[in-house]
Amino acid sequence: MTEQHLHGTTTGDAGTGSVGVAPAEIEEIARTTSAIAGSISRVIEGKPDVIRTALVVLLAEGHLLLEDVPGVGKTMLSKALARSIDCTVRRIQFTPDLLPSDVTGVSVFNQDTRTFEFRPGGVFANIVVGDEINRASPKTQSALLECMEERQVTVDGVTYELDAPFMVVATQNPLEMEGTYALPEAQRDRFMARVSMGYPVEAAEIAMLDHHTRANPLADLEPVTDAATIAKLVEIVTRIHVAPTVQRYAVALATATRHSPELLLGASPRASLHLVRAAKAAAALDGRDYVVPDDLRALAVPVLAHRLLLTVEAAMSGRTTASALSALVASVPMPTPPTSPSHR
Predict the structure, then answer these.
(1) CA–CA separation, 315 vs 297, rounded Å?
(2) Where are the beta strands (DSSP E) in the chain?
(3) Which of 38, 144, 168, 285 has the greatest CB tally within 10 Å of its CB?
(4) Do 1-21+239-344 and 63-228 have matching folds?
(5) Residue 155: how many CA atoms within 13 Å on its side-chain side?
(6) Any idea which fold 63-228 has?
(7) What is the DSSP-derived secondary structure letter of residue 241?
(8) 3-class DSSP state for residue 302?
């Protein structure tokens, strides 16, 4: 396989509509994301992979789902990301009595003007932190469907556009925890990636005890960039080149999940799109203006696993969606990389 087949070109390839990314733009992405990662690392220690995934989702203009047991830093990570960017931030605490109108907004009758006025809900911000999203009822959870997919909210027949960039960072506890509801399949599919924080290593936990018991680490965080810069970086990432061969590999991964006897529900076309968009952001973080198959393989589990449903037999045998997906990814042949380091 030639280099042209795998990477194509980055200057006007007709097959993908790529218009190219300048080296200075890649450097700007590296500089800005490094500053954000450094800011978050002051609060969340020993989790570089989780922070990187959060940055990938941010640059790919997606939404992030943080799932783990209570107390491992899910909300702290989402707050640290929000505070590192000078933009509007709203936090929604999801509880069983939360109403859909608390999320989207509501029209209120004004006695003075004798008209209805719209009062925006919690989603009207650049970064929305949805804390413990699966403790609200499915009806309230579904209030996020339109805004997550279309970046807009419709209330009483009137549509309101949301500001860009727009990102939902939601946390949830495992379903085994008391008082939780399963997220609807349609909503899980709108999250670009799901990651688990995991417990910190011993050294990181000792450092946390030292730093976090003296003061609130979030209080000292200052923004290192702003919403306009993030919007610019998101636009740059859209121009990262994806060769037709790599696109076919992404579709092959999604198709494998749809034909697996272990899976009741496979990856949707939206999942394929999210996988490629996330791979573009990952390539930019690595200093490349093109996607390689390894980008897709590395992101397959965080981007695809939460969208899948196991069959009853697979679940009873102890399989998880992540393990089933990992086996599928290993079975799909990767495009052969070029021997030359140049992709031109």
Answers:
(1) 24
(2) 64-67, 85-86, 89-93, 105-110, 115-120, 127-131, 152-155, 158-161, 167-172, 193-195, 225-226, 263-265, 309-310
(3) 144
(4) no
(5) 24
(6) Rossmann fold (3.40.50)
(7) B
(8) helix
CATH topology of domain 1-21+239-344: Helicase, Ruva Protein; domain 3 (1.10.8)
Could you tell me the two tokens for 11?
A: 């200057």
State the pTM of this model: 0.87
| Measured CA distances, 171 to 127, 221, 297 (Å) | 13, 21, 25
Name the residue with tokens 């030359």.
Answer: 340
- Written as tens digits, the pLDDT of the chain (344 aa) is 444 444 544 443 433 444 688 999 999 999 999 999 999 998 888 889 999 999 999 999 999 999 888 777 888 888 899 999 999 989 999 998 999 999 999 989 888 888 888 999 999 999 999 998 988 888 888 889 999 999 999 988 889 999 889 999 999 887 666 667 788 888 899 999 999 887 777 777 777 776 666 667 777 889 999 999 999 999 999 999 999 999 999 999 999 999 999 999 999 999 999 999 999 999 999 999 999 999 999 999 999 999 999 999 999 999 999 999 999 999 999 987 543 344 54
Cα-Cα-Cα-Cα dihedral sign, residues 326, 328, 330, 335: negative
Please report, for the chain, the start and end positions of each structural domain, with discontinuous segments joined by +.
Answer: 1-21+239-344, 63-228
Q: Following CA atoms 245, 250, 254, 255 in sequence, which dihedral angle do they give, to the nearest 10 degrees? A: 0
Task: State the DSSP code for 72.
Answer: S
Q: Tell me whether the omega of the peptide bond preceding residue 165 falls within 30 degrees of 0, making it cis.
A: yes
